[in-house]
Specification:
InterPro entries: ADH-like_C (IPR013149), ADH-like_N (IPR013154), ADH_Zn_CS (IPR002328), ER (IPR020843), GroES-like_sf (IPR011032), NAD(P)-bd_dom_sf (IPR036291), Zn_alcohol_dh (IPR050129). The protein contains eleven helices and 19 strands. It has 344 residues and is α/β, with parallel strands linked by helices. The chain folds into two domains: 156 residues, Quinone Oxidoreductase, Chain A, domain 1 (Alpha-Beta Complex); 155 residues, 3-Layer(aba) Sandwich (Rossmann fold). The protein is globular.
Length: 344
């Protein structure tokens, strides 16, 4: 079996001699068609962040990443009922394994869901990050006219914007913040009203110019009640972590900050705005099972276009090139087409 093998930071390869997994009781074996490279996979690729739960070991000792994928059921484990070999499914795993010809998936509504007709495998491989976005938007409870800021518009942050627009939520300004121009342009294309490139200067001043400035005994802020931190903390990036800037930006009263982006280790930030402004800071980890289904229904009904977010596609044979491309500024979402072969 072909499978990716994560070796060390900056080094990932393909192996052709990995053992094909066997589904345990309560599992199915999925023949993978497409698998996305997630932001968390990149954190691991850069510096081993969360390696212990992002890569699944084969009997040979290969460490196979990939936790968001789509394919067909190839085999049923003991006791599995209600599913059939050949069904098109989305799989989500907690410990990788999807960047391979085959991967086992437990049968439960958090990790296995049927694909509707009219949705391609490539689109469906973005279901999990879309569901993540739906949960974040649900938690934020955006009220009519409220301005929104999204830090980090990779596949997750773009999914947040798509979730807001697809559900016809009556937001005010939707401001996307990133350091990559290609991603900011994509954010405008799918529904952001404004973009700010954090490399261009003072993010607070730029957002306040768009959304308005507030000042009282509580301090100074921009008029932004809702902030999604989809960037987290990337150790090699200069400047304050996005969460610190979010605390400066968030409204003087009633603010909500939803944190999703991974953190590459401890960080130091100014926490005093928490006392002054009393915002609610919520973590968001995953999704509700119904949001996996909702994400697929939005794709089927044409309310979100996930294909437009896929900037590059590579065969599994070119796994190293795929990861290197995902690190580049022009990449939005890099997809692995597992069944495609490198041209001779």
């Amino acid at each position: 079996m072909k499978a990716a093998n994560y070796v060390d930071p900056g080094k990932i390869e393909m192996r052709v001699d990995a053992t094909r997994p066997v589904p345990a009781p309560g599992e199915v074996l999925v023949a993978v068609e497409a698998c996305g490279i997630c932001g968390s996979d990149l954190h691991m690729y850069r510096n081993n962040t969360s390696r212990d739960h992002l890569a699944r070991k084969t009997p040979e000792g290969y460490e196979v990443p990939g936790h968001e994928f789509a394919g067909r059921i190839a085999e049923l484990g003991e006791g599995v009922t209600g599913w059939a070999v050949g069904e098109r499914v989305v799989g989500v795993t907690g410990f990788g394994g999807g960047m391979a010809d085959y991967v086992t998936v437990p049968v439960n509504p958090f990790q296995l869901v049927r694909m509707p007709d009219g949705v391609s495998f490539v689109e469906a491989a973005t279901t999990e990050p879309m569901a993540d976005g739906l949960q974040m938007v649900r938690k934020a409870e955006i009220r009519p006219g409220e301005n929104v800021v999204v830090f980090g518009v990779g596949i997750i942050g773009l999914g947040v914007i798509q979730a807001i627009r697809a559900q016809a939520i009556d937001a005010g300004r939707i401001v996307a913040i990133d350091v990559q121009q290609a991603r900011l342009e994509k954010a405008l294309e799918i529904g952001a009203t404004d973009v700010v490139n954090a490399r261009d200067g003072d993010v607070f001043a730029a957002v306040a110019a768009i959304c308005g400035r507030e000042e009282s005994y509580r301090g100074v802020s921009a008029n932004v009640p809702v902030i999604f931190d989809c960037a987290g903390y990337i150790a090699h990036m200069s400047g304050p972590p996005p969460l610190e800037t979010a605390l400066r930006l968030v409204s003087l009263t009633g603010g909500r900050i939803i944190c999703f982006g991974a953190f590459e280790g401890p960080m130091t930030i100014d926490m005093m705005p928490i006392i002054h402004k009393e915002p609610v800071i919520m973590g968001s980890n995953g999704y509700a099972p119904e949001e996996l289904v909702q994400a697929l229904e939005l794709m089927r009904d044409g309310k979100v276009d996930r294909n437009t977010l896929i900037s590059h596609s590579y065969p599994l044979d070119a796994i190293s090139d795929a990861f290197e491309m995902q690190c580049q500024p022009q990449a939005v979402k890099v997809m692995l087409d597992i069944r495609e072969q490198v041209a001779a």
